[in-house]
Protein backbone atom coordinates (compact mmCIF):
# COMPACT_ATOMS: atom_id res chain seq x y z
CA UNK A 1 0.00 0.00 0.00
CA UNK A 2 2.82 2.38 0.93
CA UNK A 3 4.69 1.66 -2.33
CA UNK A 4 1.50 2.19 -4.38
CA UNK A 5 0.87 5.58 -2.76
CA UNK A 6 4.50 6.62 -3.31
CA UNK A 7 4.35 5.56 -6.97
CA UNK A 8 1.11 7.54 -7.47
CA UNK A 9 2.65 10.65 -5.91
CA UNK A 10 5.80 10.27 -8.03
CA UNK A 11 3.72 9.91 -11.19
CA UNK A 12 1.62 12.99 -10.29
CA UNK A 13 4.73 15.06 -9.59
CA UNK A 14 6.34 13.89 -12.82
CA UNK A 15 3.19 14.82 -14.78
CA UNK A 16 3.18 18.30 -13.20
CA UNK A 17 6.85 18.83 -14.05
CA UNK A 18 6.32 17.75 -17.66
CA UNK A 19 3.38 20.15 -17.97
CA UNK A 20 5.55 22.98 -16.60
CA UNK A 21 8.28 22.20 -19.10
CA UNK A 22 5.84 22.18 -22.01
CA UNK A 23 4.53 25.63 -21.08
CA UNK A 24 7.89 27.20 -20.29
CA UNK A 25 8.79 30.58 -21.81
CA UNK A 26 11.53 28.89 -23.82
CA UNK A 27 8.79 27.36 -26.00
CA UNK A 28 6.28 30.22 -25.88
CA UNK A 29 8.25 32.94 -27.72
CA UNK A 30 6.98 32.78 -31.32
CA UNK A 31 7.58 36.42 -32.33
CA UNK A 32 7.45 36.96 -36.11
CA UNK A 33 10.62 38.31 -37.66
CA UNK A 34 11.40 40.30 -40.79
CA UNK A 35 13.12 38.89 -43.84
CA UNK A 36 15.85 41.54 -44.13
CA UNK A 37 17.35 40.85 -40.73
CA UNK A 38 17.27 44.34 -39.24
CA UNK A 39 13.69 44.90 -38.15
CA UNK A 40 11.27 47.11 -40.01
CA UNK A 41 7.93 48.85 -40.06
CA UNK A 42 5.39 46.98 -42.18
CA UNK A 43 1.84 47.47 -43.35
CA UNK A 44 -0.49 45.32 -41.26
CA UNK A 45 -2.91 43.03 -43.08
CA UNK A 46 -6.42 44.14 -43.99
CA UNK A 47 -5.65 47.88 -44.13
CA UNK A 48 -6.56 48.31 -47.79
CA UNK A 49 -9.66 50.42 -47.15
CA UNK A 50 -7.83 52.84 -44.85
CA UNK A 51 -4.93 53.12 -47.29
CA UNK A 52 -7.35 53.63 -50.17
CA UNK A 53 -8.74 56.65 -48.33
CA UNK A 54 -5.25 57.98 -47.70
CA UNK A 55 -4.20 57.52 -51.35
CA UNK A 56 -7.37 59.09 -52.74
CA UNK A 57 -9.27 56.17 -54.28
CA UNK A 58 -12.18 57.61 -56.27
CA UNK A 59 -11.34 61.24 -55.46
CA UNK A 60 -9.87 64.00 -57.58
CA UNK A 61 -6.85 65.23 -55.62
CA UNK A 62 -6.24 68.43 -57.57
CA UNK A 63 -8.01 70.00 -60.52
CA UNK A 64 -6.40 67.53 -62.89
CA UNK A 65 -4.89 64.63 -60.85
CA UNK A 66 -6.42 61.31 -59.77
CA UNK A 67 -5.08 58.03 -58.42
CA UNK A 68 -4.45 55.64 -61.32
CA UNK A 69 -3.49 52.58 -59.29
CA UNK A 70 -1.83 51.56 -56.07
CA UNK A 71 0.32 48.63 -55.04
CA UNK A 72 0.51 47.81 -51.34
CA UNK A 73 3.71 45.93 -50.60
CA UNK A 74 5.17 44.61 -47.37
CA UNK A 75 6.61 47.90 -46.15
CA UNK A 76 5.85 50.40 -48.90
CA UNK A 77 2.93 51.65 -50.97
CA UNK A 78 3.56 52.52 -54.60
CA UNK A 79 0.93 54.67 -56.26
CA UNK A 80 0.55 56.04 -59.75
CA UNK A 81 -1.27 59.35 -60.11
CA UNK A 82 -2.53 60.51 -63.49
CA UNK A 83 -2.26 64.26 -64.03
CA UNK A 84 -3.36 65.66 -67.40
CA UNK A 85 -2.97 62.16 -68.86
CA UNK A 86 0.63 61.71 -67.59
CA UNK A 87 1.52 59.11 -64.94
CA UNK A 88 3.57 60.05 -61.86
CA UNK A 89 4.91 57.48 -59.40
CA UNK A 90 4.75 58.21 -55.68
CA UNK A 91 5.95 55.99 -52.82
CA UNK A 92 4.59 56.05 -49.28
CA UNK A 93 6.74 54.51 -46.55
CA UNK A 94 7.34 54.77 -42.82
CA UNK A 95 9.41 57.95 -42.18
CA UNK A 96 12.29 55.83 -40.80
CA UNK A 97 12.40 53.65 -43.91
CA UNK A 98 12.13 55.91 -46.94
CA UNK A 99 14.37 54.60 -49.74
CA UNK A 100 15.39 58.10 -50.79
CA UNK A 101 14.98 61.61 -49.43
CA UNK A 102 11.22 62.13 -49.21
CA UNK A 103 9.51 64.89 -51.14
CA UNK A 104 7.15 65.45 -48.19
CA UNK A 105 6.61 63.96 -44.75
CA UNK A 106 3.83 63.59 -42.23
CA UNK A 107 3.76 62.03 -38.77
CA UNK A 108 3.41 58.48 -40.14
CA UNK A 109 4.52 58.68 -43.77
CA UNK A 110 7.42 59.68 -45.99
CA UNK A 111 5.99 60.64 -49.38
CA UNK A 112 8.52 60.32 -52.20
CA UNK A 113 7.92 61.34 -55.80
CA UNK A 114 9.95 58.94 -57.93
CA UNK A 115 9.27 60.85 -61.17
CA UNK A 116 10.75 64.25 -61.94
CA UNK A 117 8.31 66.94 -62.91
CA UNK A 118 5.52 65.86 -60.60
CA UNK A 119 3.06 68.73 -60.15
CA UNK A 120 3.82 70.53 -56.85
CA UNK A 121 0.10 70.91 -56.13
CA UNK A 122 -0.24 67.09 -56.23
CA UNK A 123 2.45 66.69 -53.55
CA UNK A 124 0.84 69.41 -51.43
CA UNK A 125 -2.57 67.76 -51.85
CA UNK A 126 -1.18 64.33 -50.95
CA UNK A 127 0.59 65.64 -47.86
CA UNK A 128 -2.60 67.37 -46.66
CA UNK A 129 -4.72 64.30 -47.39
CA UNK A 130 -2.31 61.96 -45.58
CA UNK A 131 -2.19 64.27 -42.54
CA UNK A 132 -6.00 64.34 -42.42
CA UNK A 133 -6.40 60.55 -42.67
CA UNK A 134 -3.27 58.98 -41.18
CA UNK A 135 -4.79 58.78 -37.69
CA UNK A 136 -6.69 55.68 -38.86
CA UNK A 137 -3.47 53.91 -39.85
CA UNK A 138 -0.79 52.39 -37.67
CA UNK A 139 2.43 50.73 -38.84
CA UNK A 140 3.39 47.37 -37.35
CA UNK A 141 6.95 46.76 -36.14
CA UNK A 142 8.49 43.41 -37.07
CA UNK A 143 11.48 42.68 -34.88
CA UNK A 144 14.78 41.51 -36.33
CA UNK A 145 15.63 37.83 -36.03
CA UNK A 146 17.22 36.93 -32.73
CA UNK A 147 20.90 36.10 -32.77
CA UNK A 148 22.04 32.57 -31.97
CA UNK A 149 22.95 33.70 -28.46
CA UNK A 150 19.49 35.18 -27.91
CA UNK A 151 17.72 32.10 -29.27
CA UNK A 152 19.70 29.79 -27.01
CA UNK A 153 17.80 28.65 -23.96
CA UNK A 154 17.01 31.74 -21.84
CA UNK A 155 18.18 31.84 -18.23
CA UNK A 156 14.67 31.32 -16.83
CA UNK A 157 14.33 28.26 -19.09
CA UNK A 158 17.67 26.89 -17.87
CA UNK A 159 16.59 27.33 -14.27
CA UNK A 160 13.26 25.63 -14.96
CA UNK A 161 14.97 22.66 -16.61
CA UNK A 162 17.53 22.43 -13.79
CA UNK A 163 14.76 22.44 -11.18
CA UNK A 164 12.86 19.78 -13.13
CA UNK A 165 15.98 17.62 -13.42
CA UNK A 166 16.67 17.96 -9.69
CA UNK A 167 13.07 17.05 -8.92
CA UNK A 168 13.23 14.00 -11.19
CA UNK A 169 16.45 12.86 -9.52
CA UNK A 170 14.79 13.39 -6.14
CA UNK A 171 11.79 11.36 -7.24
CA UNK A 172 14.09 8.59 -8.38
CA UNK A 173 15.97 8.59 -5.06
CA UNK A 174 12.73 8.56 -3.03
CA UNK A 175 11.33 5.77 -5.20
CA UNK A 176 14.55 3.76 -4.78
CA UNK A 177 14.49 4.20 -0.98
CA UNK A 178 10.81 3.23 -0.76
CA UNK A 179 11.39 0.11 -2.86
CA UNK A 180 14.23 -0.95 -0.53
CA UNK A 181 12.02 -0.45 2.54
Structure characterization notes:
The chain is α+β, with helices and mostly antiparallel strands. The chain has two domains: 2-30 and 148-180; 40-142, no CATH class. Helix content is 43%, strand content 22%. It has six helices and eight strands, in the order ααβαββββββαβαα. Strands 2-3-4-5-7-6 form a six-stranded antiparallel beta sheet. A two-stranded antiparallel ribbon has the order 1-8. A hairpin with a 3-residue loop joins strand 3 (65-72) and strand 4. Helix 1 packs antiparallel against helix 6. The longest helix has 26 residues, at 155-180. It is rod-shaped, with a radius of gyration of 29 Å.
Which features does this protein show?
single chain; 181 residues; alpha+beta; 2 domains; six-stranded antiparallel β-sheet; two-stranded antiparallel ribbon; 6 helices; 8 strands; 22% strand
Amino acid sequence: MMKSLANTRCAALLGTLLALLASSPAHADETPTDTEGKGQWVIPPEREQVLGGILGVGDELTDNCKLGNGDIRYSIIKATYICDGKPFEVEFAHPDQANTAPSATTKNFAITATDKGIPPDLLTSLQTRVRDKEGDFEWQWIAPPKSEVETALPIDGVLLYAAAAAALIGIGVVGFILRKA
